[in-house]
Design goal:
By secondary structure, the chain is α/β, with parallel strands linked by helices. Helix content is 39%, strand content 21%. The chain has a five-stranded mixed beta sheet with strand order 3-2-1-4-5. α2 links the parallel β2 and β3.
Amino acid sequence: MSLTDKKFQNKVVLVQIMGSWCPNCLDETKFYVNYLKENGHEDMEMVGLAFEYAKTEELAYKSIERLREQIGVNYPILLAQYGASDKEKAQQKLPMLNHVLSYPTTLFIDKKGNVRKIHTGFNGPATGEKYTHFTKEFDTYVKMLLNE
C-alpha cells in the first residue's frame, strides 16, 4: 500500500502513527473509528502505521488484529515496524518528517498529496475541555481540507 495508490488519489488522507501497546493510541483509534462512522466522506481515507514491540512479525500482526477487532477499526493498519517502538527507527521509516516525537502522531495530507499538518499526542475523553477543543479543531481542519 502506498500513498500513490489510486485509492488515495485526490483525497484527504490521515495517517495515524501508532502502536497497539499505546494507551493514548487506543483512545485516539476509538475517536477515529467513531469519527469516520459519523463523518465518513468519499474524499477522505485513513491508514494506520503500527510500530509494535512484539518480537516477531507474526505476534505484531496478532496484536494489530486484536486491536482492530476490539475497537471495530474500519481502516487499514499496516505493520511499519516490529521488535521495538524506537522513535529514531520510526523516523527512518518516515524520512519526510523532521522527527517522530511521540505516539500517537497523525499526518494530515491534502488532496494534492502534501503534508499540511502534523498532530502529536492525543488528549482523550478523560482530559475534558482539552478533548472537546481537540474534537472541534480536528473536525474543522478536516472539513477545510475536504472543501479545498
